[in-house]
């Protein structure tokens, strides 16, 4: 388990290779206190126009916590996850995992994407072994660990199958087993169930909660599906649709396993709908599937 801290993070995209002193970019990133800017870095690549994706993001994620980043498409939730995972760097600010700055991807934290990333020429067992193989683990130990994780996701009987022979849900379970095999401290998940049908998606949500109960990893999970966030998370971080900011944090203090028809579940759902302005001002919420 690991803890994550995001400190005053901004992310903007610029179009030209020109450089400007970072203190001159206060208007671009909408920061009043240029002294704080000057303390963080030296120069930015800039053009006359820039796109500000994230603004003043401050977030602490505790060890073993399951946090969902929730918001509509384009709100910056995937960008924030990619910054935490080390795939990109903030324009301003700092991201720490276990008090160490994130400088790039690390074997201590694994990212699972919506596309499964399985090697088509490797069978299920050898796909799960892959990370261990890269780390230099011997064949006997690799197979033992892969066997354990495939049993965890109920796929050991499919160990000799190839990805083309698997359903979407099975492929994502193989992907999850491969991630667990290297025993990461943090699992980042970027809309991992987005390509699945509704029924399989619900089953995968239930599956990950069971697996997480046995491993207690720190998980950061990106979604735009409200029920999914409430079902999975200890805490839901709502991202604003047009500002690239954290709009609200909601703690989900519901016992597991969670029941989507429970009045307390529905109450939290109503709160999220109101935050995202998905309800009419009539006192009644309308839900559409």
Could you please describe the fold and organization of this structure?
33% of the residues lie in helices and 24% in strands. Mean pLDDT is 84; it is low at 17-48 and 280-289. The chain has a single domain (4-8, 57-275), classed as 3-Layer(aba) Sandwich (Rossmann fold), CATH 3.40.50. α4 (124-134) crosses α5 (139-152). It contains 9 helices and 12 strands. The two termini are 36 Å apart.
Percentage of β-strand residues: 15-25%
CATH class: Alpha Beta
CATH superfamily: P-loop containing nucleotide triphosphate hydrolases
**Tally of contiguous helical segments:** 9
Shape: globular
- Biggest β-sheet description: 6 strands, mixed
Give average pLDDT, whole number: 84
User: How far is the N terminus from the C terminus?
Assistant: 36 Å
| Rg estimate, integer Å | 21 Å
Number of strands: 12
CATH 2nd-level architecture = 3-Layer(aba) Sandwich
Q: What is the CATH fold-level name?
A: Rossmann fold
Structural class, from helix and strand content?
A: alpha/beta
Provide the number of structural domains. Answer: 1
Q: How helix-rich are the residues, as a percent range? A: 25-40%
Strand order of the largest sheet: 8-9-10-5-11-12
How does the SSE layout of this entry go?
Layout: E1 4-14, E2 19-21, H1 26-29, H2 34-38, E3 43-45, E4 50-61, E5 66-70, H3 77-85, E6 92-97, E7 100-101, E8 109-113, H4 124-134, H5 139-152, H6 168-181, E9 186-190, H7 198-215, E10 218-223, H8 226-232, E11 235-239, E12 246-251, H9 263-275
Parallel strand pairs: 5-10, 5-11, 8-9, 9-10
Antiparallel strand pairs: 1-4, 1-6, 2-3, 6-7, 11-12
Helix pairs in contact: 4-5, 4-6, 5-6, 8-9
């Amino acid at each position: 388990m690991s803890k994550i801290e995001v400190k005053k993070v901004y992310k903007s995209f610029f179009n030209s290779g020109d450089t400007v002193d970072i203190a001159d970019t206060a208007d671009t990133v909408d920061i009043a206190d240029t002294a704080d800017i000057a303390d963080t870095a030296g120069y930015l690549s800039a053009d006359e126009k820039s796109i500000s994706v994230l603004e003043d993001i401050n977030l602490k994620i505790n060890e073993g916590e399951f946090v969902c980043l929730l918001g509509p498409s384009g709100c910056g939730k995937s960008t924030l996850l990619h910054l935490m995972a080390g795939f990109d760097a903030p324009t301003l600010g700092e991201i720490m995992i276990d008090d160490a700055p994130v400088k790039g991807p690390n074997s201590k934290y694994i990212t699972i994407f919506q596309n499964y990333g399985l090697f088509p020429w490797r069978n299920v067992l050898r796909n799960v072994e892959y990370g261990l193989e890269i780390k230099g683990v011997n064949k006997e130990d690799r197979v033992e660990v892969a066997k354990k994780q495939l049993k965890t996701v109920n796929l050991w009987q499919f160990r000799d199958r190839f990805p083309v022979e698997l359903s979407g849900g099975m492929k994502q379970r193989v992907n999850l087993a491969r991630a667990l095999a290297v025993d990461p401290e943090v699992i980042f998940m970027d809309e991992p169930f987005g390509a699945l049908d509704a029924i399989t998606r619900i089953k995968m949500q239930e599956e990950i909660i069971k697996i997480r109960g046995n491993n207690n990893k720190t998980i950061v999970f990106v979604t735009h599906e409200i029920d999914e966030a409430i079902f999975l998370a200890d805490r839901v971080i709502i991202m604003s649709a047009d500002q690239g900011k954290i709009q609200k944090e909601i703690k989900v203090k519901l016992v597991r396993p969670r029941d989507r028809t429970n009045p307390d579940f529905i109450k939290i759902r109503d709160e999220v709908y109101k935050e995202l302005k998905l309800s009419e001002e009539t006192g009644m919420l309308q839900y559409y599937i």
